[in-house]
Structures are given as C-alpha cells and as structure tokens.
Amino acid sequence: MRHLLSAGDLSRDEALLILDTARELAQVSGRSVKKLPTLRGRTVVNLFYEDSTRTRISFEAAAKRMSADVINFSAKGSSVSKGESLKDTALTLQAMGADGVVIRHSSSGAARRLAGWVDGAVLNAGDGTHEHPTQALLDAYTMRERMGRLEGLRVAIVGDILHSRVARSNVLLLSTLGAEVTLVAPPTLLPVSVGAWPCAVSYDLDEVLPKSDVVMMLRVQAERMQAAFFPSAREYSRRYGLDRDRFARLPDDAIVMHPGPMIRGMEISAEVADSPRSTITEQVTNGVSVRMAVLYLLLGGSESAIGN
Q1: Is the CB of residue 118 less than 8 Å from the CB of residue 88?
Q2: CATH of the domain at 81
Q3: Are 123 and 98 in contact (CB under 8 A)?
Q4: H helices of 49-192, where?
Q5: Same domain as 152, residue 269
Q6: Residues placed in the known binding site for carbamoyl phosphate
Q7: Cβ proximity of 126 and 7 under 8 Å
Q8: Each residue of 6-56: pLDDT tens digit?
Q9: Annotated binding site for L-aspartate, which residues?
Q10: 2, part of any domain
Q11: 207 and 90 housed in the same domain
C-alpha cells in the first residue's frame, strides 16, 4: 500500500491491518504522554483546498503523536489564490521533501492526480463528491469496537447520498469487510451510478430501521446543491430525519452514527444525537487512532508502531 486514495483500493486484509493497528495505537490515548517516536524525521503536509475542522485537526494530531513534522497548507492566503495549479503546488512540496501529503480538494480525482506528481505517500482526505477513505475506516473501526464485529452487520446509510463522499467510501469498505449496506434517500439524492454500488437501496426509512444494526445519518450538503432536491427542510426531516419515534423502532442494541457536522433538528434530533447509543464523539476520537495507523503503515516508520 503506497497511497490511500480510495476505500475500494483496500483488500480485506489491508483494511483489517489498518483497523488492528489503530486499536494498538489507541493505547497511546490512555498514556500521560501521548507521543511516539515512530515517524520522527518524517514530514507530513496537510494540503487543504476546502474548509475542514475535524479531518484537518485529526490528521495533524495523528502526525504529531507519531513525532512527524507537520506543515499545514491552506489554499486561502497561499499562491493558489494567485492562480498556482495543483501540479505546481505538488512540485513545490516535492522539492521540499514531503514524505506524506494529506489532500482535501473540491475536485473528484484530485488525490489520484497528485499521487502521480509526488514521490511521497498521498492520503485522500476528501476529493469532491468522490471519496473520503479515512472516514470510512474510522466508521468501520467504531462499528467493530461497539458491535464486536463487521461481518454480517446490517448498516443503513441515510440522507444526501448524491453529494456524500463518506457514503461512497463506506459502501466500498463495508462491503469488503462483509457488512450489508442499504442506502436510504429520496430518489433525487441518489447518484445515477448507485445501481453499480455493492449495496441495496430503499426510499423508506421506516421500513429499514427495524432491520438495521447501525444507522449512519448524513448531512444535507446544501452548499453543493444548485437546485431544489426536496420540497423543504421540514418535509425532508419528516421523511428522512431520525427523531425519538424512529429511534424507538431500531433494535435495542443498534447504534447511531454521523460523520459530522450535524444539522440538529433536520437529519437527527438532539435527543438521538446525545443518546448513549450514539457514537458521534467516539468517531472523532477514533479518527485520530485510525489516521495514526494509516500514516504509520504508509510512511513506513522504522520502529514498531507503539515502541517498547
């Protein structure tokens, strides 16, 4: 594994290796000193062309806990705002000797293009509406920690599938790991290509909920919408929002997930988001461990993952 560009590029063994390594590295969070020497001397560049809070900070924390040097690059205020191309920015990073580049870009396929221009490892932190593989990995990690397994889990992913890179990556990864995924959304918020995805599709959330072990709610990405995809926010919430009544239809041990940021009251009620069966804050915590694992495996630390 040289890069992490798509969840679909991972074999079952590679995905499980990442999850197992993340579990090992999660021990670091319980230490008084949350620092390992594993990637000392390596340089990781966070190359973010889109705004981000959770993903950028998570990758920064992960790299710093592994003792890597971190350079945060924001398109705003950089030469990009003066018209510099992605390729020229990549060549600049190459000249600086970046060992790993974490990229978030508004264009689908940007991470794969970057991988052809630099010698270091490229990690896709979200490219357009295409993919977000580390989010899928941390989601799978969270499911396995909470439910004890991934094989045979029934996972419903609900909401704005059309604009969600998280949904696509989760479908690809979870199917590889043996889970059964059902996408639930209005027809207008499903991509044309969904028929080729390894999952089932439903338009009826109430029918799917009693048969789900995991329900992952997605944010409606209004910033990517150039047209009206549903009548109103109230109508969307009535048909596809997870409120107290719908939550009660889930099996007793089912969990609720959300990649964030949430729109409380529209796609998920505050009561459900804050319930003990919600994993939303755990996902953020687990994201650091998973990204530590990915950085370790890609950048090939010379020492064992957690040292002696």
Answers
A1: no
A2: 3.40.50.1370
A3: no
A4: 54-65, 86-95, 110-115, 133-147, 165-176
A5: yes
A6: 54-55, 104, 132, 135, 260-261
A7: no
A8: 999 999 999 999 999 999 999 887 777 778 999 999 999 999 998 888 899
A9: 82, 165, 219
A10: no
A11: no
Residue 301 confidence class, pLDDT cut points 50, 70, 90: low
Residue 304 lies in a domain: no
Claim to verify: residue 152 and residue 187 sit in the same structural domain: yes
For residue 208, count other CB atoms closer than 10 A to its CB.
19
Arithmetic mean of pLDDT over the chain: 90
Which of 98, 97, 104 minimizes the C-alpha distance to 126?
104
Token representation of residue 249:
């239809």
Q: Which residue, 166, 158, 159, 100, is CA-closest to 138?
A: 166
- Annotated binding-site positions: 54-55, 82, 104, 132, 135, 165, 219, 260-261
CB 67 within 8 A of CB 94: no
Sign of the CA dihedral running 51, 54, 55, 57: positive
Domain count for the chain, please give it. Answer: 2
162 and 243 share one domain: yes
Which pairs with CB-CB distance under 8 Å and at least 24 residues apart come from 90-93? 90/114, 90/117, 90/118, 91/117, 93/45, 93/47, 93/118, 93/120
Q: What's the one-letter identity of residue 212? A: S
Domain that holds residue 53: 7-131+284-299
* In a shared domain, residues 151 and 248: yes
* 119 and 54 co-located in one domain: yes
Angle between helical axes of 133-147 and 165-176 (0-180°, round to 10): 50
Q: What is the pTM of this model?
A: 0.93
The four Cα atoms 29, 38, 103, 13 give a dihedral, to 10 degrees, of: -80
Are residue 24 and residue 117 in the same domain, yes or no? Answer: yes
Q: What are the structure tokens assigned to 28, written together? A: 């670091």
